[in-house]
Amino acid sequence: MGIILKEHIEYKLIITEEEKKFNLNKKEHLLASPKHLPEILPRVFKKERGKEYLCFKKQNISEKEIKISSDYFVGIDWLTTDKSRFIQVEPKLNDKVVESFEKVSDIENEDISEKEIEQWDKETKDEIETSGNEYEVNVIEMLMQIMSHSEVSRHTENLLLVDWEDHEILINQKQDLLTPFLVVKFLNLLKDITRKGLKKSYYKEQKNLRNRVKGKILVGQQIRQNVFKNRLTNTFCEYQVFGEDSLENRFLNKVFIFCTNYVENNKIYFKDENEIFWLINYIRPSFEHIGSEINIHEIKNYKHNPFFKEYKDAIKVGQQILKRFSYNITKTTEEKISTPPFWIDMPKMFELYVYAQLLKDNPELKAENFNYQFSTHGNALDFLICSGDKKIVVDAKYKLHYNYSQVHNDIRQVAGYARLKKVKNQSPQLNEEIECLIIYPKPIDGICNNNLNLGELKWDEVSVYHKVYKIGISLPTIK
Predict the structure, then answer these.
(1) What is the DSSP track for 238-285?
(2) Are 457 and 449 in contact (CB under 8 A)?
């Protein structure tokens, strides 16, 4: 039985010993005997600068009540260590949080009392909890945009956490985010490989040759297939061939067939069908003459060639996809599937989505102009844009706060980055204040700017700060 949460939402579970009461409302209760209370151990997504980032949080309110809260990771995991309940966090955002962030940043009056701030926070929190104005973020569409730029796609390695060793969770196909995520990532890696051309290498081939010998004779197969069958002019040989039908390419083709089958049977995940099918049709001709018969154990011992770095990532993701389907292509059509626990880092996803949008809307700039994750003194700026005589500190703020003080802390943090000497000294060197820009997500039907062309942006200045600006960009959503 699963508990479904939205991002950044709290949920209370009442502990009960009565099985009848539990069965009547499983969503609100946790069944436990006095001697055995199911243990809840939130998974750690990552550790950065001595801080642990938990996929979800647990707080014991009393002996009979537990509070579960989601943060900004979406996915599915076991809630209890006895595997009796699981938790799922959906990528849904509340536009009331966005409205609060915009209202706070637009307030020009700085003389607000603590009582007024407290009242503001309480009313906003009530609005968020009672509001039904939510939109579900299309994570797969965001990934499509990210993976379309090779400069951005190489930063996706730590975007996903999957525990392949844990017990799998049975869910409906529609609840699955992991499979389409891996499929999109694999197809885009394959696109980069086919654009450069498939790798050619020496590989072994076994063939029953007529009236000739090549390489070495395989005695066992020769006796079984030729001597016993009185085919005395045939010789079963193994020899090396230089070409594209190698072990690695056959493996990629096998995974490609799985992905094609999955996309055709699960179009619901792909908002723009033309884009995903264009990708498949772009890749298909390169593998027309490549086989798909392969011993999976052979690929486990594959040695990466540094001259073909795209193969390393594609084979890694391909192995995950085959493991996902238990190497059985018929599982791509099932309505009920089992999935390993997984989590997606949504703030990181938003950063990369903004990065892809900046590259798309500013073709005259290169990846090095954006200085993604520019680090200094334990701080990491999302972007430090340096071009010509312009320098901008950009913060992609997916984790919006509605709390008055926290909103200002976020703004001051960005402004503080612009005062760092390492940032000031980065070319071009400016004597004047560096401009700061906060980019945040807005609902699809909100008034926002989808064009991040730095030469055309209409700057919306944060009222009480000098040269600090904000802009909302729409995210792809699922209706």
Answers:
(1) EEEEEES--HHHHHHHHHHHHHHHHHHH-GGG-S-HHHHHHHHHHHGG
(2) yes
Q: Provide the pLDDT for residue 61.
A: 76
CA distance 121 to 117: 6
- The bridge status of strand 86-90 relative to strand 2-6 is parallel
Q: What is the pLDDT of residue 448?
A: 52
Give the relative orientation of helices 178-196 and 309-324 as an angle to the nearest 10 degrees.
150
Same domain, 191 and 320: yes
The whole-number pLDDT of residue 110 equals 67
For residue 182, the surrounding DSSP H or E stretch is: helix 178-196
417 and 468 together in one domain: yes
Q: In this structure, are 315 and 459 located in the same domain?
A: no
Q: What is the mean pLDDT of each run of 10 residues along the chain (479 residues)?
A: 73 76 68 68 85 87 81 89 86 80 77 77 74 79 90 90 91 84 93 90 89 93 93 93 89 93 84 84 92 80 77 90 76 75 93 93 89 81 87 89 80 85 80 87 62 78 85 83
Boundary-marking domain end, from 316, 339, 362: 339
Q: Are residues 190 and 320 in the same domain?
A: yes
- Residue 212: its H or E element: none
Could you list the residue range(s) of the whole structural domain that residue 451 is in? 346-478
Asked if residue 440 and residue 394 are part of one domain, the reply reads yes
Query: Could you say which of 243, 274, 309 is where a domain stops?
Result: 243
Question: For residue 187, which of 289, 139, 246, 255 has the smallest C-alpha distance?
Answer: 255
Residues 181 and 238 in one domain: no
Instruction: List Cβ neighbours of 237 (8 Å cut-off, separation of 6 or more).
Output: 206, 207, 208, 209, 213, 214, 215, 216, 217, 218
The verdict on residue 277 lying in a domain is: yes
Same domain, 175 and 233: no
Q: Let me know whether 25 and 72 are in one domain.
A: yes
Bridge partners for 69 per DSSP: 10, 57
Give burial (CB, 10 Å; 0-12/13-18/19+) of 173. Answer: middle
- pTM comes to 0.85
